[in-house]
């Protein structure tokens, strides 16, 4: 404070000088909250009133720039007489960027009540806060106000509206605002692309990215994270690799956020070796990086390696998060490590103070169900401190279907009727059990109920990537230009599989029809058509990667194991439940599917 103490100036005539001096000192304390408090104290001692709009403006601006406590800023704000629009905006911005953005909305409403005219910076900050709290009605109200005030055509406001609609799950509205923009800058492209990526719309994400490249807009780290997210969801490994090459070219591989997205891409495309390589090459890792690889290893069936990595993470001093433990419990589940899973569940609570969420309880039910302990799983659900949701009960229903527990499956289905009565997957799982017991009248009864309730079965589809395109196939698909060659390969596949001793697994065909008809139905499942297409379209020895929206059936699982052996191909299938790495007649899941 020597600099301040050296100015022994007093009296009303010197106050403008002191005010200027305080403002200059405030602007110089960009990285020190302690210095800010010293300047504030100095201004009070020198008689600068907090009601001064100029002093208050710079106090709040400096505090917000330092990410200081907003309660402190708010106390100053409410002592200012007639704060100008800059000060109102700074308060809104401070709360919008804080962990509690609600007061930003309240201050904006108060500003409107006081008839303070907004400017170009007001709405971006307000919309940022509204997007954070996902308040749809408030956001739509602000959108209407921007139109009424003539601000809707301003690029800052338009960018914020695109971001807002994407963040609240209205990707189409985000796209609509984007298309109305005359100046589509990189921020706008990133916002609309990310809106589709966040809302699980990978095809639209990739279409916009291609259009962005065509229009000559260069992507940045944010663009690539959205692109990698979409590529991961579609299983588009080749596209993800091209993004990886671009990242290396422009130096974005050093960006931790983008590198974590890349790690996630390789894990979700079943390419664990490359995911591990990305992890090993990280210059700066984080708990997010460790968690991504642990979860990636677990879902790909490498549970033991996932648990070893978790131990290494602990040795390096990283503190696991609740998501890390989802990966750890998932690894135990897919390896059949029941006792170890319960030990980790207990450690999570006692050692790390993490209160279990519904996802953790879901892992525990899955752990018991996969091990065949379905009755214990049922008791575990009924004893849970949280109200079990439909996912929990559906996990048990799936386990009952796999292990043939019909009575418990019917009880479980009754719970699901109360929660999600029109979920088609529940009908299918129960039908599988009835069909396995040859209770065809019950199968037909379920089908009649589905028709009566308007429940439609979700059609299975399989995605494969080839030549910069993602090809989609459904059961019995004959729409592809190569249909004739595909079905010739299907026939040849079936012939060679039978020579290997393949017998179709017909027990789950949900119809009381002749065995030969059942075998024909099984031969045309979407994943088999996808494999036939890739066999005729790629050189021998090329790996085949498939993304399936439903769980792989028992017959396809058996057939793909044999296909991997007969054709000497690695086949990676990502279904709704997990990854299956087929190689030389075996599967990584060890038939725990």
From TrEMBL:
PPR repeat residues: 84-118, 185-219, 255-285, 286-320
Keywords: Repeat
BP terms from Gene Ontology: RNA modification
Protein's name in the database: Pentatricopeptide repeat-containing protein At4g21065
Family of this protein: Belongs to the PPR family. PCMP-H subfamily.
Source organism superkingdom: Eukaryota
A Pfam family it matches: DYW_deaminase
GO molecular function terms noted in the UniProt entry: RNA binding; zinc ion binding
InterPro entries, per the entry: DYW_dom (IPR032867), E_motif (IPR046848), PPR_At4g14850-like_plant (IPR046960), PPR_rpt (IPR002885), TPR-like_helical_dom_sf (IPR011990)
Record organism: Nicotiana sylvestris (Wood tobacco)
Domain DYW: start-end pairs: 501-593
Gene: LOC104236040
């Amino acid at each position: 404070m020597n600099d301040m103490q050296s100015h022994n100036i007093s009296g009303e005539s010197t106050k403008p000088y002191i005010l200027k001096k305080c403002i200059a000192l405030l602007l110089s304390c960009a990285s020190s909250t302690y210095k800010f408090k010293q300047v504030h104290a100095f201004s009070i001692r020198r008689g600068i009133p907090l009601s001064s709009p100029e002093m208050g403006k710079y106090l709040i601006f400096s505090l917000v720039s330092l990410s200081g406590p907003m309660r402190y800023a708010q106390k100053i704000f409410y002592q200012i007489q007639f704060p100008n629009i800059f000060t109102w905006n700074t308060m809104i911005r401070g709360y919008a960027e804080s962990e509690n953005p609600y007061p930003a909305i309240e201050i904006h409403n108060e500003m409107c009540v006081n008839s303070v005219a907004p400017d170009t910076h007001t709405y971006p900050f307000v919309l940022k806060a509204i997007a954070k709290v996902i308040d749809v009605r408030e956001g739509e109200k602000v959108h209407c106000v921007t139109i009424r005030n003539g601000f809707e055509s301003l690029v800052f406001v338009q960018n914020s509206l695109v971001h807002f609609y994407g963040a609240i799950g209205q990707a189409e509205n985000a796209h609509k605002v984007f298309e109305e923009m005359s100046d589509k800058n990189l921020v706008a492209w990133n916002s609309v692309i990310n809106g589709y990526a966040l809302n699980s719309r990978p095809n639209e994400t990739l279409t916009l990215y291609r259009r962005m490249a065509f229009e000559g807009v260069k992507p940045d780290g944010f663009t690539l994270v959205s692109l990698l997210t979409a590529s991961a969801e579609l299983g588009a490994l080749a596209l993800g690799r091209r993004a990886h090459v671009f990242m290396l070219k422009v130096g974005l591989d050093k960006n931790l956020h983008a590198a974590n997205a890349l790690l996630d891409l390789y894990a979700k495309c079943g390419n664990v070796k490359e995911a591990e390589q990305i992890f090993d090459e990280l210059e700066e890792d984080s708990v997010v990086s460790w968690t991504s690889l642990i979860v990636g290893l677990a879902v790909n069936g490498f549970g033991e390696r996932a648990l070893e990595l978790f131990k290494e993470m602990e040795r390096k001093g990283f503190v696991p998060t609740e998501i890390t433990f989802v990966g750890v419990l998932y690894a135990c589940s897919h390896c059949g490590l029941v006792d170890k899973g319960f030990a980790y569940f207990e450690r999570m609570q006692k050692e790390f103070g993490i209160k279990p969420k519904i996802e953790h309880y879901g892992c525990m039910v899955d752990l018991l169900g996969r091990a065949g302990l379905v009755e214990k799983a049922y008791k575990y659900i009924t004893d849970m401190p949280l109200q079990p949701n439909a996912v929990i009960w559906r996990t048990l229903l799936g386990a009952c279907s796999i292990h043939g527990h019909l009575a418990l499956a019917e009880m479980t289905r009754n719970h699901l009727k109360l929660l999600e009565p029109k979920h088609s997957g529940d009908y299918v799982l129960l039908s599988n059990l009835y069909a396995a017991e040859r209770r065809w009248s019950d199968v037909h009864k379920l089908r009649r109920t589905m028709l009566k309730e308007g429940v439609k079965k979700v059609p299975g589809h399989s995605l494969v990537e080839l030549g910069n395109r993602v090809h989609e196939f459904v059961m019995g698909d004959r729409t592809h230009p190569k249909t004739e060659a595909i079905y010739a390969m299907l026939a040849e596949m079936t012939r060679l599989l039978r020579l290997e001793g393949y017998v179709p697994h017909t027990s789950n065909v949900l119809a009381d029809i002749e065995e030969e008809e059942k075998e024909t139905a099984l031969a045309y499942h979407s994943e088999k058509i996808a494999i036939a297409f890739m066999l005729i379209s790629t050189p021998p020895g090329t790996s085949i990667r498939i993304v399936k929206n439903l769980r792989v059936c028992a017959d396809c699982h058996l057939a793909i194991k044999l296909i991997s052996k007969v054709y000497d191909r690695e086949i990676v299938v990502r279904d709704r439940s997990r990854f299956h790495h087929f190689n030389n007649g075996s599967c990584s899941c060890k038939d725990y599917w």
